[in-house]
């Protein structure tokens, strides 16, 4: 077996490379933002002795009289209408609990899913007993945020054929702040793979289904073997997404596609190497800048 | 005992420091991708690793749920290879249980737990090499990990130990100085507001000396704060420069 040995490379310090420009107003926990009492307290701040102090490390943002501190890395804060991907953790009475990288598990009510047999079906007691046959612990789903409760928990729905149980594919987890908000988060990439970019940082890669309408309401998964070529494309995309997130690039269809095209010169496993990551992300960044004009 | 001379006539300690001097501190944030927050810190030869998960849904028994604030769950452990003598420490070691409790108290005082009702925040710290001041190093590592995770805190929590040898208060004791058996004080401080998150003392110390030792520990904590703040600021600048100034949602 061939073993590749590579020497350690010193971490590049951005502070040394002179990349530091106007990074905005940075604060750390306990720092005083303002002593002026005319401001409103937003997220990431607290009041003490008539002073407004930061409670997280991050960038200060001002909207008129409101002051917030945005941390660089947090858990997912849901908003109504977000597309999210999550994993079922628990089946309860009339609801599923779903892990969505949020600070509390999200709920998917039995009344907010499409059951097999059409939208207008009545939900009976039998449905409640058969919940585990639709979704059980460990299943992945895609859904949309329907409401945010007062304690921050999310309520979701899957009342569209776009959403539902996910079958064969690969889940990639990145920081939620790296997902760019777009009109659509479902894409069929030209390389024969589809992608769901969940706003919560969960990304689902799967082979583009041949025919899209299904009557089962999305609870039946196709278990036919996926051809090797499709699996290779998915693995390459996965490594590309990890490369982009390692360099803190925003993720959306174009950036992922450009990165995929830049990576074609390398073997799939090589995309995980630091030097190759720098290479292909640089190329991607350049193409994105060129395109913007 | 005719042992070691812990403080020379010239005022130098065994490792060449002055009485109020700290050991060299090196810190790094965001060492793991999987955890919500992580940090690694070296204070002289004491090395600690901290990871933070959360806030997340309460795992395990539901009965722990608090309806007005988050549960802080800590776990302190020492690697088998961390001490001079190799030792396997199964869970439930008396010393680690006590340390776990202290860490929990410290961070419940500093984290704004009331913002996350019904959730849980996990803090796991491990000592990789023990050379005195284990509790203090763990607190400093955990503080950095919590900041990395973006969990709101009142202030940094900075901890430092202090001792009293030959009528002089010494800051940041090393293993040799701890083993000498003199009085030892561990202080966890919120440096901006001068509030004490935890104060612990071993063995006897005359009341008259307490204030001087406390002053030495407070000063050391503020020095630690300066170093940690520097590390956080550098990390912040590095990451925000990478992100550029695009409007993240």
TrEMBL record, chain A:
Keywords: Cytoplasm, Exosome, Nucleus, Phosphoprotein, RNA-binding, rRNA processing. Pfam families: ECR1_N, KH_6, S1_RRP4. SUPFAM superfamilies: Eukaryotic type KH-domain (KH-domain type I) (SSF54791), Nucleic acid-binding proteins (SSF50249), Ribosomal L27 protein-like (SSF110324). It is found in: Cytoplasm; Nucleus, Nucleolus. One of its GO terms (molecular function) is RNA binding. Residues 75-146 form the RRP4 S1 domain. GO terms for cellular component: cytoplasmic exosome (RNase complex); nuclear exosome (RNase complex); nucleolus. Component of the RNA exosome core complex (Exo-9), composed of EXOSC1, EXOSC2, EXOSC3, EXOSC4, EXOSC5, EXOSC6, EXOSC7, EXOSC8 and EXOSC9; within the complex interacts with EXOSC4 and EXOSC7. The catalytically inactive RNA exosome core complex (Exo-9) associates with the catalytic subunit EXOSC10/RRP6. Exo-9 may associate with DIS3 to form the nucleolar exosome complex, or DIS3L to form the cytoplasmic exosome complex. Exo-9 is formed by a hexameric base ring consisting of the heterodimers EXOSC4-EXOSC9, EXOSC5-EXOSC8 and EXOSC6-EXOSC7, and a cap ring consisting of EXOSC1, EXOSC2 and EXOSC3. Belongs to the RRP4 family. PANTHER family: EXOSOME COMPLEX COMPONENT RRP4, PNAS-3 RELATED. This is Exosome complex component RRP4. The gene is EXOSC2.
Automatic annotation (TrEMBL), chain B:
Its main location: cytoplasm. Keywords: Acetylation, Cytoplasm, Exosome, Nucleus, RNA-binding, rRNA processing. Residues 21-152, 155-220 form the Exoribonuclease phosphorolytic domain. One of its GO terms (cellular component) is nuclear exosome (RNase complex). InterPro entries: ExoRNase_PH_dom1, ExoRNase_PH_dom2, ExoRNase_PH_dom2_sf, PNPase/RNase_PH_dom_sf, Ribosomal_Su5_D2-typ_SF, RNase_PH. SUPFAM superfamilies: Ribonuclease PH domain 2-like, Ribosomal protein S5 domain 2-like. GO terms for biological process: nuclear mRNA surveillance; poly(A)-dependent snoRNA 3'-end processing; rRNA catabolic process; rRNA processing; U4 snRNA 3'-end processing. Gene3D superfamilies: GHMP Kinase, N-terminal domain (3.30.230.70). It is found in: Cytoplasm; Nucleus, Nucleolus; Nucleus, Nucleoplasm. Belongs to the RNase PH family. This is Exosome complex component RRP41. It comes from Leptobrachium leishanense (Leishan spiny toad). The gene is EXOSC4.
């Amino acid at each position: 077996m061939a073993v590749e040995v590579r020497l350690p490379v010193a971490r590049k310090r951005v502070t040394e490379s002179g990349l530091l420009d106007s990074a905005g107003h940075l604060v750390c926990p306990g720092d005083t933002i303002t002593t002026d009492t005319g401001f409103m307290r937003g997220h990431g701040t607290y009041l003490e002795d008539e002073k407004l102090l930061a409670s997280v490390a991050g960038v200060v943002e001002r909207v008129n009289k409101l002051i917030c501190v945005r941390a660089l890395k947090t858990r997912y804060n849901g908003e109504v209408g977000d597309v999210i991907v999550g994993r079922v953790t628990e089946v309860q009475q009339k609801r599923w609990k779903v892990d969505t990288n949020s600070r509390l598990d999200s709920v998917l009510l039995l009344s907010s899913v499409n059951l097999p047999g059409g939208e207008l079906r009545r939900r009976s007691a039998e449905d409640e007993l058969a919940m585990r046959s639709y979704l059980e612990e460990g299943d992945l789903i895609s859904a949309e945020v329907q409401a945010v409760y007062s304690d921050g928990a999310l309520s979701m729905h899957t009342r569209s054929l776009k959403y539902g149980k996910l079958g064969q594919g690969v889940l990639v987890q990145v920081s939620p702040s790296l997902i760019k908000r777009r009109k659509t988060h479902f894409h069929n990439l030209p390389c024969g793979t589809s992608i769901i970019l969940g706003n919560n940082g969960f990304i689902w890669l799967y082979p583009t289904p041949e025919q899209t309408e299904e009557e089962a309401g999305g609870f039946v998964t196709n278990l036919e073997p996926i051809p090797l070529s499709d699996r290779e494309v998915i693995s390459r995309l996965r490594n590309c997404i990890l490369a982009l997130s390692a360099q803190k690039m925003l993720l959306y269809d174009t950036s992922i596609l450009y990165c995929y095209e830049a990576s074609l010169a390398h073997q799939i496993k090589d995309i995980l190497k630091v030097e190759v990551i720098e290479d292909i992300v640089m190329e991607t960044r350049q193409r994105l800048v060129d395109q913007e004009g | 005992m005719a042992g070691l001379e812990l403080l020379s006539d010239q005022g130098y300690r065994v490792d060449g420091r002055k009485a109020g001097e700290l050991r060299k501190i090196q810190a790094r944030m965001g060492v793991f991708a999987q955890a919500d927050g992580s940090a690694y810190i070296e204070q002289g030869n004491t090395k600690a690793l901290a990871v933070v998960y959360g806030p997340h849904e309460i795992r395990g028994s539901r009965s722990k749920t608090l309806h007005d604030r988050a549960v802080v769950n800590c776990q302190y452990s020492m690697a088998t290879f961390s001490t001079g003598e190799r030792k396997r420490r199964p869970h439930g070691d008396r010393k680690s249980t006590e340390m776990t409790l202290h860490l929990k108290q410290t961070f419940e005082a500093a984290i704004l737990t009331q913002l996350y009702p019904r959730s849980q925040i996990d803090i796991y710290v491990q000592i990789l090499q023990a050379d005195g001041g284990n509790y203090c190093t763990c607190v400093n590592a955990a503080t950095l990990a919590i900041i990395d995770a973006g969990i709101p805190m009142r202030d940094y929590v900075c901890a430092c130990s202090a001792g009293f040898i030959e009528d002089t208060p010494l800051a940041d004791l090393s293993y040799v100085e701890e083993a000498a058996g003199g009085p030892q004080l561990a202080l966890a401080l919120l440096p901006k507001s001068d509030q004490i998150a935890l104060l612990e003392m071993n063995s006897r110390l005359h009341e008259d000396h307490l204030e001087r030792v406390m002053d030495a520990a407070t000063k050391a904590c503020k020095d630690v704060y300066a170093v940690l703040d520097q590390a956080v600021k550098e990390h912040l600048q590095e990451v925000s420069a990478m992100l550029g100034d695009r409007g993240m949602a």
